[in-house]
Amino acid sequence: TLLQQGVKDITDLSRVAPEVNVRPGTMNNITIRGIRTNSFGPTLDSPNAVYVDGNFNARFTSLNGLFFDMQRIQVLNGPQGTLYGRNSAGGAIHITNKPGEEFTADGAVEIGNYNALMLTGALNLPLGDTVAARFSYYRSERDGFYQDTDLNDQDLQSWRAQLQWKPGENDSLLLSAFSSKLGGKGSGAVTLESVLKNPTILTNTTTNSIVAFN
Predict the structure, then answer these.
(1) Are β-strands 91-96 and 116-126 bridged in parallel, bridged antiparallel, or unpaired?
(2) Could you please report the per-residue DSSP string of the chain?
(3) Contact at 8 Å (CB) between 90 and 112?
(4) Residue 94 in contact with residue 51, Cβ under 8 Å?
(5) pLDDT band at residue 214 using 50, 70 and 90 as cut-offs
(6) What own/partner pairs with CB < 8 Å and gap ≥ 24 does 145-153 have?
């Protein structure tokens, strides 16, 4: 269902959860029911928590490469401090897909304009009655949307490896490793030619000058 509705990264969550809004960019500022932060730094926390298979992601810079090989996404609205601590005043988002008991393998290739290319793949390996491993990979790249510049491009690569041991029906141990590399030049701005050709748009005069350049 998520793939059919075009949910490919965290900025697409509003398509299935209208109370969630994500300001795209390097930081991916997440808003849940109007609660967000406008301050960023190595010691600052977000009021909305994001978990992957139960592991808390403290920084939103790592969220760009999480949306692949997913089983489900849960959005918990409202203060979730009782279960998820001080980082969930607005709510919590859970992303999960753990190793299963059956052998499965799947993959997909998607191409598009602006030289877009997306590769996804996942391999689930049962290693016995109680142990299973899962490996998944994601690659997405495309050129920028603007002319005469390389801005607004995408160069993202992620992988995830998981090993799960279930000695009993109510007991399990999950070991996971995740890596994401965000490349490219990212978002940017370009000068509007209409403003330069018609300065009255900003200055209300006929003086041919640039207002607040850079």
Answers:
(1) unpaired
(2) -TTTTT--SGGGGGGT-TTEEEE-SSS-EEEETTB------TT---SEEEEETTEE---GGG-TT--SS-SEEEEEES--HHHHGGG-SSEEEEEE----SS-EEEEEEEEETTTEEEEEEEEEEE-SSSEEEEEEEEEEEE--SSTTS-TT-EEEEEEEEEEEEEEETTEEEEEEEEEEEEES--------HHHHH-THHHHSS-----SS--
(3) no
(4) yes
(5) very low
(6) 145/114, 146/188, 146/190, 149/188, 149/190, 150/185, 151/185, 151/186, 151/187, 151/188, 151/189, 151/190, 152/185, 152/186, 152/187, 152/188, 153/184, 153/185, 153/186
Q: Residue 132: its pLDDT value, please? A: 96
20/14 Cα distance (integer angstroms)? 5
Cα–Cα dist 78/93, whole Å: 11
Per-residue pLDDT tens digits for 34-92: 888 877 666 777 888 888 888 888 777 667 777 889 888 899 998 998 888 888 889 99
